[in-house]
Amino acid sequence: MIIRSLLRRPVAVRCLAAPAKSFAAPLARWKHTVPTLADHEQLEQHGIPGLFSSEGFKTAYIDYQKLLVNDLNDVTQGTEHENKDPKSLVIEWARDPEAAHFFNVASMAYNNHFFFSRIASQPNVTSQPSSDFVNAVKRDFGSFDTFRNDFLDHAEAMFGPGFVWLVQANDMPNRPLRILNTYIAGSPLSGAHYRRQAKDLNTENVDSFRELNPVGAFGSAAQKPRESKKALGGVDVVPLLCVNTWEHVWLKDYGIGGKRAFLEAWWDKINWNVVQEGATLTPAGGHRQFHYSGMNSFKTTL
Amino acid sequence: MIIRHFAARNGPRALARTAYQQPLRRFFASDVDGPNTSPEHNFERQINAQAEHIPSLNPTPDAEQSGLSVAEQYHLYKQQQQLNGRLGSEITEHYQPHTLLSNPPSSADVTLELLLASEAHQGHATPLWNPANARYIHGIRQGTHIISLEATAAHLRRAAKVVQEVSRRGGIILFVGTREGQDHAVVRAAQLSKQYHLFERWIPGSITNGQQILGRCRTKVVNEKDEEVTGFEDQLYDRPVLRPDLVVCMNPLENYVLLHECALNNIPTIGVIDTNADPTWVTYPIPANDDSLRCIQVIAGVLGRAAEAGTKQRLEAGEKGEITYKPAHNLTLPEAEETAAAEKEKLGEEKEAVELDNELAAKLEDIANHDGRRLGHRVKHSA
């Protein structure tokens, strides 16, 4: 009985095999969508007052993020990477040179959203950092103004597109705050350090940048002590804040020479509450430790 | 002030050391190997490193100061994931298989779309059907029967109500799923509701010949808050084997013996009835596809959630001091026994001695006579 019923079904089997795969994309559901920011509609209409006009914001976020999200969908749909968030994809693809383009797309999506999530969108509100945060900045940079100048100088000095990050190194004692550059689509995430791209290789050589010469048992890299095995969930650095220095972000509103003006306008629009949330801060009056702060009066000369 | 003096004292030496170690670096781009270093920070670190040798300026460094403990790191990681883990894009809602076990749907979440996506409508080839199921069948497609999802939903909700009420009344519910892959679903349902599960073969006679098969299992007496009450060991020794008050079976076709035993002993049963199964084997059939693990996980999830709700109601009543069930028959409190014994002691030592002797003799006789099997037991607990 069963055998007969199976034989009677070849028509059905053929029907199941029929559907054409000529156009896969329109039939599939879009999995990644542009993330909404706080006050998203207001931002679309008015931009970010004091930083971006509405057209500038549209170019920098709405259109560009849409581009990245569409690329992500094209890349991941139907594969094992479907439905994974961009952060996991960045860490997955950082080690694989053949997935370089995919990494770039995922990393830019992550970094660009990170940049916009740390901007205060309310028009008349200037966010101020808490005293704990200011103390941590003073401890690591000398003063808040020094920190600002340092950060903006880093961003201005980078030639070409990239990001400048404020990170907290949780592996070191006192968990210091540091500034980190990533060129083009580099990522500060600890699992993606292969593609951190903290260096512009055009301005480095073997002597200045040790990591250019990693091969050989007698190389300088071999002299480095091996990093201790981290416990589960160990993080190298925690990104807190970033600025997107890609030209398309500021070109429309600030013009071709307007990088510095953009950076300064951006500084006033930072949402320090979100930045502090990610930082581990010791409250003022924690146990005293010897730390040397205020290096700015000393120049590194021989 | 201290810093400047120290630098003034040791500055030239420190600088000289730096120069010796890295002679050519300074001519090129700043030595920024990563976020940890910069020219100023290098210098700062060297100063600090030297400062560590001076005990008065530096407290003894803690072992954990330089690195976080595992718990701290994990907490930090979780915090970071919450803040930065979802950045980049918003992913539209999609099917995640593990959520059927980690967060099962409840009776209110049962929709025709959910049942369709779980392949609950797929019946067997038409020649294999049991005509008693005709009322549940929607139609035929490609030579197989399609189960009506409205019937499935209605019967599932009814079964959920039964399960919830039995659980609320303190009944013992046994979730049975003996096919490969059904174990996780039944265990999860039992865990949610603090009831019982079975995913290995049902041993025939566990109800009809329970004394023999389940005779060695431990039983316990619990109060209205599900806390164990000690002191009943002697009384439990003589009690009969416990039986389930409701059996939920995910694959009735392979469990005919279990369902028959339940019927012989007036134990209501709920079962997932496919188009080739016999709906008269169970008290409350749920017409659905028993060959699909996803469908079984949905059904077991819904019934597990219902039982969880019932258990919650029972325990809430217990917190208020109300009981939703009839207490066990013929159990006297250990205190009542003790007072009875104390009264006996008052009568006299001789009598007591005689009685004690009698008791001792009785116990010795008992030990000599019985073949090592106790009488009163309970069906095994789930974890």
From TrEMBL, chain A:
GO molecular function list: metal ion binding; superoxide dismutase activity
InterPro entries in the cross-refs: Mn/Fe_SOD_C, Mn/Fe_SOD_N_sf, SOD_C_sf
A cellular-component GO term for this protein: cytoplasm
Record-linked Gene3D superfamilies: Iron/manganese superoxide dismutase, C-terminal domain (3.55.40.20)
Domain Manganese/iron superoxide dismutase C-terminal, residue spans: 130-190, 235-277
Stated role: Component of the mitochondrial ribosome (mitoribosome), a dedicated translation machinery responsible for the synthesis of mitochondrial genome-encoded proteins, including at least some of the essential transmembrane subunits of the mitochondrial respiratory chain. The mitoribosomes are attached to the mitochondrial inner membrane and translation products are cotranslationally integrated into the membrane.
Name this protein carries in UniProt: Manganese and iron superoxide dismutase
Species of provenance: Sporormia fimetaria CBS 119925
TrEMBL record, chain B:
Keyword tRNA processing part of the UniProt annotation: no
Keyword Ribonucleoprotein part of the UniProt annotation: yes
This protein's GO CC annotations: mitochondrial small ribosomal subunit
Annotated keywords: Ribonucleoprotein, Ribosomal protein
SUPFAM superfamilies: Ribosomal protein S2
Biological process (GO), any one: translation
Top-level taxon of origin: Eukaryota
One GO MF term: structural constituent of ribosome
Family listed: Belongs to the universal ribosomal protein uS2 family.
Protein name in UniProt: Ribosomal protein S2
Species whose genome carries this gene: Sporormia fimetaria CBS 119925
